[in-house]
Specification:
Layout (H helix, E strand, L loop, with lengths): L9 H11 L4 E7 L2 E6 H17 L7 E5 L4 H12 L3 E5 L5 H11 L3 E4 L2 H10 L8 E4 L12 E4 H7 L5 H9 L6 E6 L9 E5 H12 L9 E4 L6 H12 L3 E4 L6 H8 L3 E2 L3 H17 L2 H21 L7 H20 L8 E3 L6 H10 L3 E7 L4 E5 L12 E2 L3 E5 L4 E6 L5 E2 L3 H7 L6 E9 L5 E6 L4 E2 L5 E2 L1 H8 L5 E7 L6 E7 L1 H10 L7 H5 L2 H14 L9 E6 L19 H7 L1 H9 L7
Parallel strand pairs: 1-11, 3-4, 3-5, 5-6, 6-7, 10-11, 10-12, 13-14, 25-26
Antiparallel strand pairs: 1-2, 8-9, 9-19, 14-15, 15-16, 17-18, 18-20, 20-21, 22-23, 24-25
Length: 606
């Protein structure tokens, strides 16, 4: 029998955990160079203290509070304190500009802004005069100091120590009156085009997500999850809250560039990630393999084959006989376990979302014994719509529909969704909300896809991102980019094809690997620009493109390319905080390079 949604109200579940989990670790964060735990009891005390402090600032029911910070334990403490007083959180990506942040604060009408990080604080101080609703800023890091400002500025440490016992009754009343119909959060879509829209998610949305994940996700008390994707995104935010609802320990990493070190230090059981992380790990392994002695390379590939047999046996394929099991044991001892150890050695599964994961990359991880669970979801559906479940994984698919969610394929092969996890709508945007739903109430996702014979979802592309060449051929850019990005020498790629007579590409090399190759070849260069313009380097990429594009149709293959001397940049608006390409910005910024590619004669080879 399913748990009633009322019993899965986030605030109720968390208060039960605070009361019963005692000294067990709830949150793990780094203080200096040391990881430290915050117990469930202490966690609850801090959430209550901050709830009372927020009430002392005269926040009414369903008032808005923004959070502009990198991942931290304080981020979640603030999030749950906002929820306890029935206010609404509005996260802001820590990489947002002051202008982008001001837009969200103004659109939401946020009265209070939590800030961590000097960079974010500096931006916050510049936007104060642009935001009429803003009444207070709360500094989440002790290194930040209040300054003279048009709004009140408080230190989180001081608010927690002040206690505000006079607000206890008011807090208890807010908790008692909590409703599933209350809005929990406004999550502003990072958007590849246009202004961000505030997605309204309520407690019913989240309760339904928890109940559906409980059916197949093996996670609970004593388990550790590493949070390194931004908490301002629905994927990591939703997973973090699920981890805590299940009584697990959530470890916070504020710098995603340090994820490799954190994996060894934390040794998590679970970690959410976007495909780019898996692709980079895969590329790094393949690059090392290219230069390894032939006997080591052979052993590695043989071991992967044994691991793949295990994966198929665990997911509905042929069972393994005694000989296969013995071979697997040897492969695991010599190779596979050592790869797993690089990720901490305790990974049970890794949810993946945000974009398509190359099937070859997925197969590699499954073969090693690192269970990647690819799914499909979006902010508007409180994340997960479909997922690959342990024991039912289909490589190349996004898995089966969650038990309380409905999926259908509509016009133009568009994936449409219905269920309790679907958003209420876009804040202050009734016309956009209406346009996003069909007349019979299904959410239009904007993604193309189909369902296979097992009911598993396959994503083909974004409807808005499909490119049509001047020859009338449709190009799915993510498919082409994913294929090329398999190469260890490719860090980023953006293809161009719309209204053009062939496909071209802007390619950012993986400079560490490329510079290593150049050194071996004795190539002299002054800087990265000099390197990418080198004739030998261009010839190298020409040859490698031939190999990685073999599975593409001729009309899909990249005919011309330009190597760039820098990565696509979030601060310049070229990619979103979830690493998706903003194609319009890229096409405008690199217009000269793009036009130059179409002044050339396309080589016949591709």
């Amino acid at each position: 029998m399913k748990t009633p949604l009322e019993q899965l109200h986030l605030v109720k579940v968390m208060r039960d955990r605070f009361a019963t989990m005692g000294e067990a670790p709830a949150l793990r964060h780094k203080v200096g160079e040391q990881w430290q735990d915050i117990s469930w009891q202490r966690f609850g005390e801090q959430v209550d203290a901050l709830s009372r402090a927020l009430l002392s600032l005269q926040l009414a029911v369903q008032d808005k509070v923004a959070i502009f910070a990198n991942n931290s334990a304080e981020w979640t403490i603030a999030d749950l304190a906002i929820a306890q007083i029935r206010a609404i959180s509005a996260p802001i990506y820590p990489t947002n500009t002051a202008e982008q942040s001001a837009y969200i604060i103004n659109d939401a009408g946020a009265k209070v802004l939590f800030v961590a990080g000097q960079e974010q604080y500096d931006k916050a101080l510049t936007l104060v005069n642009q935001c009429e609703s803003l009444q207070a800023i709360i500094l989440m890091e002790e290194s930040l100091r209040p300054v003279d400002s048009a709004v009140a500025i408080y230190r989180l440490k001081d608010l927690l120590e002040a206690d505000h016992a006079d607000q206890q009754t008011a807090m208890e009343q807010r908790v008692a009156e909590a409703s599933l119909n209350d809005l929990l959060t406004l999550i502003y879509t990072s958007g590849t085009t246009g202004e961000p829209k505030g997605v309204m998610l309520d407690y019913t949305n989240f309760a339904s997500t928890v109940r559906q994940h409980q059916e197949f996700v093996p996670f609970g008390e004593g388990d550790v999850s590493l949070a390194f994707l931004p908490l301002s995104h629905v994927f990591e935010r939703g997973w973090t809250l699920y981890v805590l609802c299940m009584g697990g320990t959530n470890a916070y990493l504020d710098d995603p560039m340090k994820v490799q070190d954190a994996l060894g230090e934390i040794r998590p059981h679970v970690m959410c990630a976007v495909p780019r992380l898996y692709e980079k790990i895969y590329s790094a392994v393949m690059e090392k393999l290219e230069t390894a002695p032939s006997h080591k390379r052979g052993l590695f590939m043989w071991s992967l084959k044994q691991g793949l047999k295990r994966f198929h046996a665990q997911n509905g394929g042929p069972s393994m006989g005694p000989i296969s099991k013995a071979q697997l044991a040897l492969a695991d001892k010599l190779v596979l376990s050592k790869v797993r150890e690089k990720l901490g050695g305790r990974i049970r599964f890794m949810p993946a979302g945000g974009a398509a994961l190359d099937p070859k990359v997925n197969e590699f991880f499954q073969s090693v014994g690192l269970t990647v669970l690819c799914g499909f979801g979006m902010t508007e559906t409180t994340a997960t719509v479909t997922a690959n479940w342990p024991g039912k994984i289909g490589i190349g698919t996004n898995g089966n529909t969650m038990s309380e969610t409905q999926v259908r394929i509509g016009d133009n092969d568009e994936i449409q969704v219905k269920g309790d996890t679907v958003m209420r709508g876009y804040y202050n945007r009734p016309e956009d909300t209406q346009a996003t739903f069909t007349e019979d109430g299904w959410l239009k996702t904007g993604d193309c896809g189909c369902l296979d014979a097992q009911g598993r979802l396959l994503i083909t592309d974004r409807i808005k991102e499909l490119m049509k060449t001047s020859n009338g051929k449709y190009i799915a850019p993510q498919r082409v980019e994913g294929m090329v990005a398999r190469d260890p020498l490719v860090e980023q790629i953006a293809i161009v094809a719309d209204a053009r007579n062939y496909v071209s590409a802007l390619i950012v090399p993986a400079f560490e690997a490329l510079e290593s190759w150049a050194k071996e070849k004795g190539i002299q260069y002054k800087d990265k620009l000099d390197l990418v313009e080198n004739a030998q380097v261009k010839a190298l990429f020409e040859e490698r493109l031939k190999a990685v594009q073999a599975e593409l149709a001729r009309f899909e293959q990249v005919k011309q390319f330009t190597l760039l001397n820098r990565e696509f940049c979030m601060k310049l608006g070229e990619i979103t905080p979830t690493m998706k390409l903003r194609r319009k910005v890229i096409n405008e910024r690199f217009a000269r390079e793009i036009e130059a590619m179409y002044k050339k004669v396309a080589p016949a080879r591709a």
